[in-house]
């Protein structure tokens, strides 16, 4: 079963998300509330079918600003250094003052994914 893509954006009042394939849209004050709303709006839009969706059925796609706002634990300065980009340039992308090219976006995404893989494989000594 193909995942439904919800595009998430940071707004001045919280978050918004939309799914072009289903014509579904929702908004919320917090990211946790948005996830709940996404499930509700997608299940409502699919109510005439027998399909029920869970978070596992949804692909959440972020713009850079929304991603770094949702995952504050990721240090943008350290990530910039890691991917060979100046902190200033990444900050401009995150703030929306500059729009990254597809190549730059892929570079940032690969850096984030590499950090995720490293963390997933990590253990602590007891």
Description of the structure:
By secondary structure, the protein is an alpha+beta fold. The protein has two domains: 59 residues, Double Stranded RNA Binding Domain; 47 residues, no CATH class. β1 and β2 form a beta hairpin. The model has no long low-confidence stretch (mean pLDDT 91). A four-stranded mixed β-sheet has the order 3-2-1-4. It is globular. It is built from five helices and four strands; from the N terminus they run βββαβαααα.
Structural class: alpha+beta
What share of the residues lie within helices? 40-55%
Distance between the termini: 41 Å
**CATH topology of the largest domain, what is it called?**
Double Stranded RNA Binding Domain
Radius of gyration: 17 Å
CATH architecture of the largest domain: 2-Layer Sandwich
CATH class categorisation of the largest domain: Alpha Beta
Which range does the strand content fall in?
Answer: 15-25%
For the biggest sheet, the summary is: 4 strands, mixed
Strand order of the largest sheet: 3-2-1-4
Tally of strands: 4
Q: pLDDT average, as an integer? A: 91
SSE map:
Elements lengths: L3 E8 L2 E6 L4 E5 L2 H15 L12 E5 L1 H7 L5 H8 L3 H9 L6 H19 L6
Parallel strand pairs: 1-4
Antiparallel strand pairs: 1-2, 2-3
Helix pairs in contact: 3-4, 3-5
Brief summary of the model shown:
The protein has 126 residues and is of the alpha+beta class. 46% of the residues lie in helices and 19% in strands.
């Amino acid at each position: 079963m193909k995942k439904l893509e919800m595009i998430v954006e940071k707004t001045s009042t919280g978050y918004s998300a939309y799914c072009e394939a289903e014509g579904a849209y929702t908004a919320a004050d917090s990211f946790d509330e948005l996830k709940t709303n996404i499930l509700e709006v997608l299940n409502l839009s699919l109510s005439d079918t027998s399909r029920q969706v869970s978070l596992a059925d949804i692909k959440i796609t972020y713009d850079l600003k929304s991603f770094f706002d949702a995952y504050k634990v990721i240090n943008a300065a350290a990530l910039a250094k890691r991917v060979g980009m100046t902190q200033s340039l990444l900050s401009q992308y995150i703030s929306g003052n500059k729009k990254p090219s597809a190549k730059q976006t892929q570079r940032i995404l690969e850096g984030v994914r590499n950090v995720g893989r490293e963390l997933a494989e990590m253990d602590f000594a007891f």
